[in-house]
Amino acid sequence: MLKCCSDGCEANRASSRSPPDPHHRYFPGSLLLTCTFCVPRLPSTVGFCSSRVLSRCGLGQLGVGLAQMLRKQYGTDNVILSDIKKPSPDVYKSGPFVYADVLDYKLLRELIVNNRITWLVHYSALLSAVGEANVALARKINITGLHNVLDLALENCLRLFVPSTIGAFGPSSPRDPAPDLCVQRPRTIYGVSKVHGELMGEYLHHKYGLDFRCLRYPGVISVNTTPGGGTTDYAVQIFHDALSTGHHECYLRPETRLPMMHIADCHRATVEFMQAPECQLTLRTYNIAAMSFTPEEVAQEIRKHLPHLKVTYNPDVVRQSIADSWPVRFDDSNARRDWGWTPVFGLEELVTDMLNSIQSRRAKEGLPAS
């Protein structure tokens, strides 16, 4: 049975609506982060202590960068990365790393107790297109893994962050813009699991005082990881193709507009939201936005740097149908008002940064530009 722990814990303070301890507002003490991205494997996890952070979304697209940001703020030894696969030499040398599986409840409990975790960040999920290809595995990771961390967060009075997504909306949702509160009804297992997470977290907050926090991410664009199953992945691959072959075949129609965000803004939003005093929050789940563009618009912006880029369009039925059910813009006015969210990267800044970063990486690897 789910229950809260001692009377003095943060969840009980939230339940009574008394002001949170200022030490918990800005430094979590301990944090555990779970995550798996885009691949059919079991998830990973991260965490923070009064003096240490256990990061268990360690090797995913968002986990490595988030851990780097947290280590800069709280110290390398205070962020412990974890995953179920072997880390690269660079990641292993960058700070502490441990094995953890988000579906192993006993192991997660040991990590939380032994490392005195006080924050939990849960990133584990199979993304939209991959989830549709393996619904059973997506249900296991995206929902069973979520219930593990919800139970552990409640049992140990943790502050819990669970990201949601543009995929939490469906064809009956308002599309331009999509507000924080509206009809959702997604049509992918990925989206269904995210709505389930939003509602379970909000229920446990109101029922037991769990300090649950959730951000709906748009498509996240990063140079550090290769695309792997998301509907918005074309917006990463097009940069690599522009600098390697000069040709990109897009699986969406040229006019398909979707909300997007540079990964640096995504990381910063996550940390700022986790650090925000609870008394400032009027919602448990917020949209965050930065820009919205189509494949043709990002291609035109890239051509300002690389005029030779050729883009052809061969829409994939599954991914196009998913994209057509999603919002074209997010309304993030509540996040801007409540905790001061403001993006840094627009389309022009994103394109310049992505091209420069990939070009630099290719030069270091001895690879030619197209």
TrEMBL record:
PANTHER family: L-THREONINE 3-DEHYDROGENASE (PTHR42687), L-THREONINE 3-DEHYDROGENASE, MITOCHONDRIAL-LIKE (PTHR42687:SF5). It catalyses: L-threonine + NAD(+) = (2S)-2-amino-3-oxobutanoate + NADH + H(+). GO terms for molecular function: L-threonine 3-dehydrogenase activity. Pathway: Amino-acid degradation; L-threonine degradation via oxydo-reductase pathway; glycine from L-threonine: step 1/2. InterPro entries: Epimerase_deHydtase, NAD(P)-bd_dom_sf, NAD(P)_epim/dehydratase. Belongs to the NAD(P)-dependent epimerase/dehydratase family. It comes from the Eukaryota. CDD domains: TDH_SDR_e. Catalyzes the NAD(+)-dependent oxidation of L-threonine to 2-amino-3-ketobutyrate, mediating L-threonine catabolism. Residues 60-289 form the NAD-dependent epimerase/dehydratase domain. This is L-threonine 3-dehydrogenase, mitochondrial. Its EC number is 1.1.1.103. Pfam families: Epimerase (PF01370). GO terms for biological process: L-threonine catabolic process.
